[in-house]
Amino acid sequence: MLSKREEERRNQLEVVVLDELVPEDHLVRKNEQAIDFDFIYDLVKDHYSSDNGRPNIDPVVLIKMVLIQYLFSIRSMRQTIKEIETCLSLVFWVWIL
Q: What whole-number distance in Å separates Cα of residue 40 and Cα of residue 66?
């Protein structure tokens, strides 16, 4: 039953484990198991400075974002970012794994 108290529940804090929210058979988990993204660090190490400039975005995160765009047939990077912000499985894969 809908009541005014239901609206209050939206502001409650809850501790969740992201790993439990993404199904084991989800595409992003399969990709993580199939692809070792560590090789990217060796490819881009000459393009990143450890002591100069602003903090960088992890290059693996950037590659995963483009891969999500391709896998889910998203036409623009802006839309890809919106999807990542709203879909827990994508957030989990891009930032956590």
A: 14
